[in-house]
Write a structure and sequence with these properties.
alpha/beta, six-stranded mixed β-sheet, four-stranded antiparallel β-sheet, binds adenosine-5'-triphosphate, transmembrane transporter activity, transport, ABC transporter ATP-binding protein, nucleotide-binding, MacB-like_ATP-bd
């Protein structure tokens, strides 16, 4: 199976840091798989996610993403190119940062489409469908800041998918949730994978990792483990 995302020799040395956060990471992510990235605190998980997703530029190595327009060298794009790529090709479910507390649930989702030039009325109609599909019908006009943590993560999952992004990145998506709500959010993310999306999720939670197709383990910025769940496609 060809890779949707392919990283080679990734290095990340933060300025002033005593050691590299990433040190020669090679990783291939196949279309349609769910990959959990695990490892101790400080092992480089978030840095890897940010480099794979074009949020940070690596100090060495390459990241290649297959897109409808052909392969794109994410590492080589400038800031504007990487933000366009993130907007058009990728979806993000982070604990915080992408959603705006003062906007409604509907606006938070619709804005992702409006950024690509879709008119507001159409974007809001699509956003309402996504919110309903994720169990948030009736809460469209609620300010994000007045939603529960689990509801806000559903908004993030709607926003991540509305653009048609094939590749979703999540960083501790259930970290702030109680276990039942966290399990529901994970169900929704894995539901997106069942429908053909690809998921890379950073987690400390062995329960989440156990439900992913594959677990990649980092230590000191290197991949020290890469195993497929029994029964998952390899
Ligand atoms: N902006 C930064 N500047 C300097 N050093 C950084 C920066 N961000 C992360 N680091 C360092 O890089 C290393 C990897 O950090 P990273 O956040 O990727 O780890 P992590 O595995 O996600 O950790 P955690 O599980 O605690 O979130 C750590 O030593 C961290 O201190």
């Amino acid at each position: 199976m060809s890779s949707l995302l392919s990283a080679r020799g990734l290095g990340m040395a933060y300025r002033g840091a005593p050691a590299a956060a990433l040190d020669g990471v090679d990783l291939d992510v196949a279309a349609g798989e769910s990959v959990a990235v695990m490892g101790a605190s400080g092992s480089g998980k978030t840095t890897l996610l940010h480099v794979l997703a074009g949020i940070l530029r690596p100090t060495s190595g390459t990241v290649t993403l297959q897109t409808a327009r052909g392969p794109v060298g994410v590492h080589a794009l400038d800031d504007a190119g990487r933000s366009r790529l993130r907007r058009e090709e990728l979806g993000f479910v982070f604990q915080q940062g992408l959603l705006l507390d003062e906007l409604s649930a509907l606006e938070n989702v619709a804005v992702a489409r409006m950024l690509s030039g879709v008119p507001r009325a159409q974007a809001e109609a699509e956003a309402a469908q996504w919110l309903a599909a994720l169990g948030l019908a009736g809460l469209e006009q609620r300010r994000l800041g007045a939603l529960s943590g689990g509801q806000a993560q559903r908004v993030a999952i709607a926003r991540a998918q509305i653009t048609g992004a094939r590749l979703l990145f999540a960083d501790e998506p259930t970290g702030a949730l109680d276990s039942r709500t966290g399990a529901e959010v994970l169900d929704l993310l894995l539901g997106a994978v069942a429908q053909g999306r690809t998921l890379v999720v950073v987690t400390h939670d062995a329960g989440i990792a156990a439900r992913c197709d594959r677990v990649v383990e980092l230590r000191d910025g290197r991949v020290v483990g890469d195993r497929h769940r029994a029964g998952a496609r390899a």
